[in-house]
Amino acid sequence: MIHLAKRVFRQTINDKRSVMMILVAPLLILTLVYFLLGDSDYVPTVGINKNAIPDSLVTALEEQDLNVIDINDAQQAKEYLKNHNDVDAIFTLS
Question: What is the pTM of this model?
Answer without folding.
Answer: 0.53
